[in-house]
Design brief:
The complex is a heterodimer.
Chain A (H helix, E strand, L loop, with lengths): L1 E6 L5 E6 L5 H7 L19 E4 L4 H4 L4 H6 L10 E3 L12 E4 L6
Parallel strand pairs in A: 1-5
Antiparallel strand pairs in A: 1-2, 3-4, 3-5
Chain B lengths: L4 E9 L3 H12 L4 E4 L7 H5 L5 E2 L8 E2 H12 L5 E3 L4 E6 L5 E5 L4 E9 L5 E4 L29 E5 L3 H10 L5 E6 L8 H12 L4 E4 L1 E8 L2 E9 L2 E6 L2 E4 L3 E4 L15 E2 L12 E3 L4 E2 L7 H19 L14 H7 L3
Parallel strand pairs in B: 1-2, 1-8, 2-5, 8-19, 10-11, 10-16, 11-12, 18-20
Antiparallel strand pairs in B: 3-4, 6-7, 7-8, 9-17, 13-14, 14-15
Helix pairs in contact in B: 1-3, 1-6, 4-5
Bound molecules: flavin-adenine dinucleotide (FAD) and FE2/S2 (inorganic) cluster.
Chain lengths: 106, 342
């Protein structure tokens, strides 16, 4: 179990329980976190689960995989801290994780 | 643009797995189909969202990829000689006075059909519109998400944004007729076909176009006419002069025109009964992800079942009062003849 905080564009925060083995995207969808559309259901095929990982957590969430890097071409305003949340697996090490949801997944 | 009306038994809206299997089920009952999809190829979500991913719950196929399933469905439908119309969005569906249906597409096709099968899945795939402030004002005049007529772009200063196949293909297609062309992408790596990337780099080397690294942040212009585009580059912001911009950020599913066809909708889905899979308008059916009924599961196998039952009722709609003989493909010589195996 890991607590994950989603920060909306307007600053509102929502902290939910993430289950080990599930993805951050699935955690968001299950808890109805707004702004994570996840059109493709986690197939890394839509880029509508884009999040910005807060600086302190970038190392722990690791690197983008090559498929994710490609798919990020279809996201808007991609930054260094951009990740596709369906490609981040929840684990105890991510307890306290904070990610920002972009204004629009489009 | 042809104004000729295509007359047929059935029009299937959507060439996803459920639409494709409907061709087969209708075909067994001698109902001829035209199939329309806004995508440039068949397969719906299977083709667009997960062509290489394995599916494990198609009965009797322990493992099959989205693209393989699509190919198998096309093969299975082949004996019935369906006609496919890709890159066409069905925009209008109306009931004619004679009880038949008229459908129109954004590409100018007009159909006159006895029955309509809506297999529109999660809706039509449409280009993603980047959330750049004020972009709407430029749409259709200076900002284009797809190219319908290349001529409208002749002699213009074109900016293409993206790194996928659409971005690269249009770069190569439009470069010869543009006054100037710039390709903008967030990184120096492309998901597009390597051959297109090579050709693009050759054009850059020959001074025939420019390639820049960065992401669009804003647009400047007047009255919907674009003058320049603001870009966040890796080494700071810069401007690109352009009076036409084509952003290619992939596709997203939007319910689209289905909502405007006067059918009852429930949370963007079409309620149907589970015997006939008919909508609130007799003669218009809905199968696959687009429909809803108590217990509905958005699975391909459910859509297959729905297609079989729908076809029975479609037959009765076309041939009122006629008896339909229940037959197996294994043993019926008449079905086998239709399948071209007898
Ligand atoms: C990542 C992922 C994995 C999945 N895995 C499975 C699985 O393992 N097993 C399973 O059973 N299901 C799975 N599904 C679900 C499955 O893909 C859908 O149930 C199935 O695609 C529905 O088929 P369909 O024919 O109803 O619609 P779709 O596949 O959505 O196709 C609908 C088509 O209609 C077109 N269309 C819509 N409106 C119009 C219009 N107005 N004019 C022209 N064209 C139009 C669209 O462009 C689209 O091509 C998965 C889905 C996803 C995203
Ligand atoms: S859910 Fe589609 S890419 Fe993550």
């Amino acid at each position: 179990m890991a607590k994950i905080t989603f920060i909306q564009h307007n600053g509102t925060e929502q902290t939910v329980d993430g289950v080990t083995g599930m993805t951050v995207m699935e955690t968001a969808v299950k808890n109805m976190v707004p702004g994570i559309d996840a059109d493709c259901g986690g197939a890394c095929a839509c880029a509508t689960c884009h999040v910005y990982v807060e600086p302190d957590w970038r190392e722990k969430t690791g690197q983008r995989n090559p498929m994710e890097e490609d798919m990020l071409d279809f996201a808007f305003d991609v930054r260094e801290e951009s990740r596709l949340s369906c490609q981040i697996k929840v684990s105890d090490a991510l307890d306290g994780l904070r990610v920002r949801v972009p204004e629009k997944q489009f | 643009m042809s104004e000729e009306v295509i007359s047929t038994d059935a029009v299937i809206v959507g060439a996803g797995p459920c639409g494709l299997f409907a061709i087969f089920e209708l075909g067994l009952l001698d109902i001829k189909c035209h199939v329309v999809d806004i995508l440039d190829r068949p397969g719906g979500q299977c083709a667009e969202l997960y062509p290489e991913k394995p599916i494990y719950d198609i009965p009797a196929l322990p493992i099959v990829t989205g693209s393989e399933l699509t190919h198998r469905l096309l093969d299975q439908a082949k004996p019935f000689k369906p006609e496919y119309h890709f890159n066409q969005m069905v925009t209008e569906l109306t009931k004619r006075e004679d009880g038949r249906f008229e459908l129109k597409t954004d590409g100018g096709l007009v159909f006159n059909a006895k029955v309509v099968v809506i297999a529109a899945g999660g809706g039509s795939f449409q280009p993603k519109k980047p959330p750049i402030p004020g972009i709407e004002a430029y749409e259709a005049k200076s900002v284009f998400y797809s190219v319908k007529k290349m001529e409208t772009l002749r002699g213009r200063d074109i900016l293409i944004v993206g790194g996928g196949d659409s971005a690269l293909d249009w770069t190569l297609n439009l470069q010869p007729l543009a006054r100037s062309l710039t390709l903008l992408h967030r990184r120096d790596d492309f998901r597009a076909a390597p051959d297109s990337v090579k050709k693009m780099r050759e054009l850059v080397a020959a001074g025939k176009m420019q390639f820049k690294l960065g992401q669009v942040t804003g647009l400047t212009g007047e009255g919907g006419v674009l003058a320049s585009v603001q870009v966040k580059g890796n080494e700071g912001p810069f401007d690109i002069t352009a009076n036409a911009m084509l952003p290619f950020f992939g596709l997203t599913m939007k319910l689209g025109p289905v909502a405007e066809w006067g059918l009852n909708l429930h949370e963007n889905l079409i309620p149907v009964d589970t015997a006939k899979f008919e909508t609130s308008t007799p003669g218009i059916f809905a199968i696959g992800d687009i429909n809803t009924y108590p217990g509905k599961l958005k699975l391909i196998l459910s859509g297959f079942h729905e297609a079989a039952l729908m076809a029975q009722e479609a037959f009765h709609h076309i041939h009122p009062g006629e008896r339909l003989l229940f037959q197996y493909t294994t043993s019926s010589s008449s079905l086998q003849k239709k399948l071209g195996v007898a």
